[in-house]
Write a structure and sequence with these properties.
This protein is mostly helical and 207 residues long. The chain has helices at residues 17-22, 40-49, 55-62, 67-93, 99-114, 137-151, 185-206, and strands spanning 116-121, 124-129, 159-161, 170-172. A two-stranded antiparallel sheet has the order 1-2. The chain has a two-stranded antiparallel sheet with strand order 3-4. Helix 2 runs antiparallel to helix 3 (55-62), helix 4 packs parallel to helix 6 (137-151) and helix 5 (99-114) packs across helix 6. The chain starts with 16 loop residues before the first helix and ends with a helix. The chain binds zinc ion (ZN). Zinc ion binds at residues 162, 164, 167, 169, 182-183, 188.
């Protein structure tokens, strides 16, 4: 079996679909890629997995669209992903959000809001979407989630950037002490401990 990472097998450690979206690039620091969103189908599969769309909506998106339209929607979603990354990476670094990417996110959230619709089923009202078949609906849903994370920054845990080599994944630090350093203790955490152990042993052998 191939151990190649896909949107189906990638670890969901961001603590938010927004950060898990950013983490569909494995890895970010020092070595960008591979990009796990290779096709629009990958985007659909990912969105179903994190609960942004139902499998019924996903099935509707997958059919009856020209390849060029799917490619364009995927490219747009990935451009949004990189803007979201820049904004939250700045938060992790304790810096202001970069203006161009902040503006991208504002535009994306405005479009997403204009695509929402107040729906009701019987007596129950809820926020739905004007068109579940819109190829940009996944990007719209991510953009609104990202906006919500940003406006609630004072009420939630901080975003951190994994310190693992080649990693750079982002996550909400929900640890009790608020000092989580790794996207996953089992992967990057262990990797760093092994590296440190080897480095200290090599140092010991030289001295
Ligand atoms: Zn990591």
């Amino acid at each position: 079996m191939s151990d190649e990472k896909t949107v189906t097998t990638m670890r969901l450690v961001g603590g938010s679909p927004v950060l898990d979206f950013v983490n569909t690039v494995d890895a970010r620091r020092d070595r960008w890629g591979p990009d796990l969103l290779r096709t629009y189908d990958d985007l659909i599969e990912w969105a179903i997995r994190v609960g942004l769309i139902t499998s019924e909506v996903g099935a509707g998106l997958a059919k009856a669209s020209a390849a060029a339209e799917l490619d364009a929607a995927l490219a747009e979603a990935k451009a949004l992903r990189e803007s979201i990354y820049a904004v939250f990476q700045a938060e992790a670094a304790g810096e202001p959000a970069p203006a161009p990417q902040g503006a991208d996110l504002t535009r994306a959230a405005s479009r997403a809001l204009s695509n929402r619709r107040l729906c009701h089923a019987g007596a129950q009202f809820f926020w739905g979407w004007k068109d579940d078949g819109d190829l940009n609906t996944i990007a719209d849903r991510v953009a609104l989630e990202a906006a919500e994370l940003l406006v609630t920054s004072k009420l939630r845990r901080p975003v951190r950037e994994c310190l693992g080599p080649y990693c750079g994944w982002l996550f909400l630090d929900s640890s009790r002490g608020g000092h989580r350093r790794w996207c996953s203790d089992a992967s990057c955490g262990t990797h760093m401990r092994v590296r440190r152990f080897r480095a200290s042993r090599a140092h010991g052998e030289r001295s």
